[in-house]
Each structure stands twice: as structure tokens, then as C-alpha cells.
Structures
1.
Amino acid sequence: MALDCEITCPLGSECEEIRGGKVYRCAWFVKIIGKNPQTGKDTDEWGCAMQWLPVLAIEIAKEGRHQAHAIEDLRNHVVTGNNNMASVMLPITKAMRGRINGSNGQAKEIEHDDSSHS
């Protein structure tokens, strides 16, 4: 014998009810529109916010993984750019050191023309 399962509010309340010509709606009774992260199907339905928490937690985790991937991708581009810049600058730096340092490793005195600073 199969039993029907009826979901009830753990707080003992109704999500919506009409009393005295007014609609009384629980503050946690919300409409969710979007894609279900588990099925990928479009969702447009009302439900208890507490009921939606597991679904939203899955969506938040998914978005967190996407953000982490984007940050890692950016990091990889920055590292590649830094490595490229270092490979360009290293020969220039070595050449500049060779001009400043003499063959004996002593720093050369760089002459300045003071006549232009009158």
C-alpha cells in the first residue's frame, strides 16, 4: 500500500491563505525564476525560501567555481606577461650593467655636462 506524502510547514503555518478578503502570505514564500542548477531546466515557481536553500547553495558553489577558474586564468596571463617582460628586460639590464661597470667590476664614474645647468 502506497502512502501519499504531504509536505507541511515545520513552523505550523500556511504559505498563503485568504482571510477576511485579504491574502496572507508568509514572508518566506518567494518566487524563484531562473535555471535549476541540477537539471538545467527553466524554473518559474513559488516555494518556501527554506526549501530553496539547498538549490541556491548548489548554484552559489557553481558560481564560486566559475569565479575561481576566471581568477586562475587571469593569474596565468599575468605570469606569462611577467615572464615575457623579464625575458625582454634581462638582456637590456645586463647590457646596462656592462656599460656602468668596468671590466674590473668597479663602477665607472659617469661624466655629466654641467654647462647646460647655468
Note: Residues 16-101 form one domain.
2.
Amino acid sequence: MTGRKNLAAKAIAGILASGPEPFAKFDLGPYVKSYNPDAHDGRGEAFFTNRIKMAKKFNSIDEAMEFWNQTSKVRPIRPDGKPNRPLTAYNITFETV
């Protein structure tokens, strides 16, 4: 089989709840389907799926890491002075699909 291989991000840690709204929706599985770092006033929101066909796809590990490390534009700095990158609350692996 030839052609470009894609990567999918898979969360391998538990969920993180931040305030009254949960950060992530794990209703469907471990694969990242979508992510908005600016949702919930910069606390972010991620949706997950168990269907790899619905998972967010990346063309390279660099592209996947850039997605995972996105900083919120609404709240770019956490109260502790570090960059606010909500998705990095998860340990992730990348799978070839």
C-alpha cells in the first residue's frame, strides 16, 4: 500500500474537570475528534470518539504536536504564569491510521 500515512491522537490518561463545566467529553472513546482551546473562557473543550475514522487526522508528528500544544488566545497564561495549553493535561500517543 502506498500513499501518505496519517496520525490520530489518542488520550491515555483520565479526564480533567475544571470548574463547573468539564473540559473533555469522553462519552465516545479515547481518540481526539475536535478541540477548541478558547472554549469556556480559555479553559478549552475537547471531544473524543472511539471511531478512528472520526478522529482528528494529522499529516506529520510536527503537525500533531502543534495541535496538542495550542495555547488559548482567550486566556494565554495560567494563574501560575505558565502557558495555558488545556489539551496538554492529557498524556497522548499518536497512532498511524
Note: The chain is about 10% helix and 30% strand.
3.
Amino acid sequence: MNIVELGVPFLVQSFKNKDNNNHEFSTLKIDMNKDQLESLIDDYLEILLQLTMVLTFGVAFPLTLTLFWILSVLELRVDLFKYVHFNKRGLCSSKPGIGIWY
């Protein structure tokens, strides 16, 4: 799954920049060619599904907790790489208050 998460954005990004290999670009122009961040829900659900499996089958196979920890660290690092290198930064917008905390 992590190969697909990194492979597809890498291929899309390489095809977008295929004709622009010889030019020097500023960080802003490089960031403009990246995809907009859709949602984090799928990544949260993926980790939540792993945690659910650990809580369900952890009693039957105690090594599950160690495997969950290793895979969660790997998943978080892959997601971090994906968000930093393949997605645009979010846009800032001002609000009149602090929302529900107000």
C-alpha cells in the first residue's frame, strides 16, 4: 500500500515536470505545480483500522503490538514524505474569532 501511495504521486509529478527539466525554478513555482491536499481522513482511517486489528487480535497473537508499532511508524513517515514533497501548502485565511472555542 505504501508503494502505491508514493509511486502514483511520484509518477504524476515526474510527468508534469518532464518538459521543464532544464530550467531553474523558484520554490514558489515548484510548489504551484504540486497537487492540492484533498483530505487526511483516508490516512487516519488506515491507522485506525490497524489499531482496531491490534485491539481485536492482540490477545491471540501478542507480537501484533510490535508489528503495529513498526508499521505505524513506517506509515507515518511515508505520509509525511508524501505531504511534504507531493502536495501544496494549505492556504491561510483570517477569521473574525477563534470559532467554537470562543
Note: The chain has four helices and no strands.
